[in-house]
Specification:
CATH class of the largest domain: Alpha Beta
Oligomer: single chain
CATH topology of the largest domain: Rossmann fold
Largest sheet: 5 strands, parallel
CATH architecture of the largest domain: 3-Layer(aba) Sandwich
Radius of gyration: 23 Å
């Protein structure tokens, strides 16, 4: 059983339509929800209308430069991740970007592997990406909760059956803690299932 995470929503802002189209195609193939804009003056209004996890922002644009747009974004949203792309990197704009909490500052033309690594970092920061171990904890927790609810058992009743605390059982179900083999055995006995059944399709 795979864990369903919400797709990351990305806004691309670049006055070069060809770059917008290329990046949008690249990102949509990876399953992200993407919108591209070639007019930077509309970014503020777009962010008010829709929630995005990441803005990919060109630095050199004719109507407004990327630093101005980033300043505007930060007045509106301090949490949204922003990656600066530029064909004209220099120390001043790199420092200005970092001061405004840009996640990264990448030179065009970009390396696709480097770009993927940046996206993955943003996803992890936003809680939209799980390591295999984290996914396993989630699968175990959701499987235990499903078995418990199918048997109409409360956490308190499970605590009585297993000798584990309500707090620990709740943390295991929410994947906030790693269950020991001993705890999983007690839970499986309390639910009347085999330990291996708690691992879903793993």
């Amino acid at each position: 059983m795979a864990i369903e995470l919400p797709p990351m929503k990305i806004l691309i802002v670049d006055d070069d339509r060809a770059i917008c189209d290329y990046m949008q195609t690249l990102l949509e193939r990876s399953g992200y929800q993407v919108k591209a804009m070639s007019d930077p003056t509309g970014v503020s209004a777009e962010l008010k209308k829709n929630d995005y996890h990441l803005v990919i922002l060109d630095l050199m644009m004719p109507k407004r430069d990327g630093i101005e747009v980033l300043q505007e974004i930060r007045k509106q949203d301090k949490d949204i991740a922003v990656v600066i792309f530029t064909g004209y990197p220099n120390l001043d704009t790199a420092v200005a970007s970092m001061k405004l909490d840009a996640v990264d500052y990448i030179k065009k033309p970009f390396n696709v592997d480097e770009f993927d690594a940046v996206i993955e970092r943003v996803m992890r920061k936003k809680g939209l990406s799980l390591t295999p171990e984290e996914e396993l904890h989630k699968v175990i927790g959701e499987t235990i909760r499903t078995f418990r609810k199918d048997k109409s058992l409360t956490l308190r009743q499970m605590a009585r059956r297993t000798g584990l605390s309500v707090s620990l059982l709740s943390q295991i179900e929410r994947a906030e803690t790693s269950a020991s083999i001993s705890s999983l055995y007690k839970i499986s006995v309390g639910l009347g299932v085999k330990v291996r059944d708690l691992f879903g399709n793993y």
